[in-house]
Amino acid sequence: MLVNADLHIHSPFSMAVSGAMQPENLLSACATKGIQVLGSGDALQPAWQKGWEPYLENEAGIVIVPQCEIEDQKRVHHLILAEDLSQFSQIRDLMAGKCKSFDTSGRPHVYLSGEEIVAIAHDVGALAGPAHAFTPWTAMYAYFDSVSACYGNEKIDFLELGLSADSSYGAAIPELYDVPFLTNSDAHSPHPEKLGREFNLIRLQHSTTKDVLASVKKGAIEKNAGFFPEEGKYNRTACTRCFTQYTLEQTIGYRWRCPNDGGIIKKGVADRACELSIGEIHARPPYLHIVPLGQIIQTVTGASSPVTKKCRSVYKTFIDTFGNEIEVLTSAPVQDIRAVNPAVGDAICALRENRVNLHPGGGGKFGTFSY
């Protein structure tokens, strides 16, 4: 069977996360979005771990994969996926004395290297790999030029691309040829513009966490889906204060300081991936570029936000008609979409045919699209 999986989210125990990120809301949001497999988020936090226990078996049939993001001693972020919540209790025990924030932070900082973190994950039978690997902050390729420089002799089980990259960005990096790519939402809110904004189409034998991990490990990922990379807020090299974009050559000449306001210029994901792409292009599963339906409705109606009353009314009509958002974005016939809303139908047709104008993001500002 094929399932849509979003394997990286957060809880209210992490910074800047909505208090609405509660299990019952997340299960409801998954049904609306069309997600069948969901990462638990922040599974190292004891209260959040306990809060999920009543929902692991749920009427919606959504598979909950215990998952956390963890920050190492160099502030690099790593994603851990496990079969059972108890494995995160074991990880906490093995990291005793190396972390002061398990009880207070959903994304804890530990005084361990990437190699040590992945070794501990493997010791308890979990999978691990770099989170949003190309992002210029807190990511593997922000601080290291190779996987081995970050993880030593420990083998990573996957690599998460992040919102500013798609699979083409890693396709010519030789050390990643045998590494499965994941693309996840990293959602801080259960709103449909956040949850499932990126997801993976995974082939499973059975709807169990064990099968999800087995499929990830062997690369049984049929498709990745997510933003056009240009929509990500770190795609281009840009000033983190005024968001002016620069070429890498200009940036080096400016010594990484914006000539307009003195802000720090951060290297964009596109430039970083280009630096690392020294091999032949290696075949990858298809990557489907999508835009959240709420954002499409906002764009075609000229609304100030996808959560305005008008946008939400249109959105609800689509869900009532087609069942879930991913069905609308990926599978529903365009003529049927146009029958609900002609302008949205035209926009989705343009997106499916790559007839869009992309206005790249950078420096911390999301990109936009028009058509």
List keywords for this structure.
14 helices; 371 residues; single chain; alpha/beta
Provide structural commentary.
With 371 residues, the protein is an alpha/beta fold. It is 31% helix and 14% strand. The protein has a six-stranded mixed beta sheet, with helices on one face. A three-stranded antiparallel beta sheet has the order 4-5-6, covered by helices on one side. A two-stranded parallel sheet has the order 7-8. Helix 13 (334-340) packs antiparallel against helix 14. It is globular, with a radius of gyration of 20 Å.
Q: Rg from C-alpha positions? A: 20 Å
Q: Kindly estimate the percentage of residues that lie in beta strands according to DSSP.
A: 5-15%
CATH class identity of the largest domain: Alpha Beta
Mean pLDDT: 97
> What is the CATH topology assignment of the largest domain?
TIM Barrel
What gap, in angstroms, lies between the N and C termini?
Answer: 35 Å
- The counted number of beta strands is 15
The CATH architecture designation of the largest domain is: Alpha-Beta Barrel
Q: Summarize the biggest pleated sheet.
A: 6 strands, mixed
Number of helices: 14
The strands making up the biggest β-sheet line up spatially as 3-2-1-9-10-13
Order of helices and strands: EHEHEEEHHEHHEEEHEEHEHEHHHHHEE
The CATH superfamily of the largest domain turns out to be Metal-dependent hydrolases
Oligomer: single chain
Q: Which structural class do the helices and strands define?
A: alpha/beta
Tell me the overall shape.
globular
Percentage of residues assigned to helices: 25-40%
Tell me the count of domains: 2
Low-confidence stretches: none
